[in-house]
Amino acid sequence: MNEEQIALFTIFGGTGDLARRKLYPSLFRLYRKGFLKNKFAVIGTARREWTDDYYREVITTSIDALSPTEEEALAFSSHFYYQAHNVMDSAHYHSLKELADELDEKYQLEGNRLFYLAMAPNFFGTIVDHLKSEQIIDTRGYSRLIIEKPFGSSFESAQQLNEQIRAVFNEEQIFRIDHYLGKEMIQNISAVRFGNYIFESLWNNHYIDNIQVTLAEDLGVEDRGGYYDKSGALKDMIQNHILQVVALLAMEVPNTFSEKTIREEKIKALKAVRIYSEEEALENFVRGQYVSNTFNGKDIISYREETNVAPDSRTETFVAGKLVIDNFRWKGVPFYIRTGKQLTTKAARINVVFKPSPVNIFNPEDVCKTLPQNILTIYIQPTEGFSLTLNGKEVGPGFHLDPVKLDYRNTAEIIENSPEAYEKLVLDALKGDATNFTHWDEVSQSWRIVDVIRQAWDKEEGDIPTYKAGTMGPAEAFDLIKRENDDWVWKPDEWYRERDLLK
Ligand code: NAD
Known about the structure:
Elements: E1 7-12, H1 17-32, E2 40-46, H2 52-62, H3 70-77, E3 80-84, H4 90-107, E4 113-117, H5 124-133, E5 143-147, H6 155-166, E6 174-176, H7 184-194, H8 197-200, E7 208-216, H9 225-250, H10 259-272, H11 278-284, E8 285-291, E9 293-295, E10 298-300, E11 318-323, E12 335-340, E13 347-354, E14 375-381, E15 385-393, E16 401-409, H12 412-417, H13 421-431, H14 440-459, E17 466-468, H15 475-482, H16 493-498
Parallel strand pairs: 1-2, 1-4, 2-3, 4-5, 5-6, 7-12, 8-17
Antiparallel strand pairs: 7-13, 8-11, 9-10, 11-12, 13-14, 14-15, 15-16
Helix pairs in contact: 1-13, 6-14, 9-10, 9-14, 10-14, 11-14
The structure holds nicotinamide-adenine-dinucleotide (NAD).
The site of nicotinamide-adenine-dinucleotide (NAD) has 20 residues, from helix 1.
């Protein structure tokens, strides 16, 4: 049974891209499933002067792709209210409180309030200060804050931001979104590890050779050039999504599967990730920026030619690196990570590469010529599932081994019907479950890990390495892994190269 949740949402940045593309459709899905029924209301605030009617039209348009009936759309959007609001203006909070109290009574919301900050982080401090000073959070129910990434732009700025927020909300009330943690297969990492003893008993440096995490995007910066050019792939992807995935892969087995125990184990894992010196950072991390190319018949422009990107930009659109985890379990097992824009294809996947058999008894001439390694692959998107590559005997005379793949993928139908990441996370926040959100200790440790890399790169002069759009990154990313006598398992670009569709 889907238990009805009772709350007032206040969405700061209610006219923005995130609210329209992600939040409103997610709220509608929760509504359709009965998690939200009659006892909920939404106040959208932003600078624009919209009326409730206009706002409701926007809501209706934003859920269009979910094909609601006319009555459904009407009933759902009737819970939405708009208030023009400049977050810097104290008087506006006064009217916000009045509206909130009025809706609380009208919809019997029991004083439960969720504040969603879908705005630039430089406004967060002002907003939370006012929520307190104007007594908007003085209710008999709960008050929770949902915050979007990026949480700061370095350890120092994140700490400042955290202090501002913590002056008003305690850690249990803060839900820092990392939408990757809402993805089905990310949550499945724990299922694969802890639900299958065959894997967990091999999940250490005795049997695992290396682990590879790839989050690849096949688009450029689109219309977010202004934001991206100041951020870059290291801060945009590694600090949050990739390090969260690494923490889930590397953590110890929690005693029980609960928010608190998982968080504790993830924090311990992140604390074991070696913080490099600047010199080590340059050795173990490489960056790149995409340049124009013709890929699969399509002309792609260079990063520097994108709108709102500086023509001499040195911002990285690709990062690859080797992380080292200094603990009993992982000593000697490199975690290779890579992410980038304008790569061959959009996909996220994890490859766990097991050690080869110590000797190859099938090759008496040279028993040291190792067999292909077993690989467990976790597919996160666009397909979801896992595969295990094993060596089997090729059918026929003689004794030749061939890799065979046991492959399980969720069907398109399951994927279609599975809750979207934002939907799951909003529901978790309504229920007060912070398992899939990032705790301050995780955020701060992640910044400590990436800050050194950033500082090392910022001291370098001259152009940064480039890669042709449509490829899987600069040559340096391949050299990095080859230097360790390893190789990237996943090479989607090869298919296109073999067909002359990619240079
Ligand atoms: P956006 O620019 O589309 O929207 C920003 C919103 O803030 C608008 O509603 C605008 O009216 C409002 N706003 C700006 N200044 C204001 C002020 N002084 N007073 C009141 N309202 C003001 O941005 P977005 O893409 O929706 O992103 C919002 C936040 O979410 C950002 O921090 C972004 O980094 C983060 N984020 C966005 C996405 C995405 O897919 N769009 C993904 C992850 C994180």
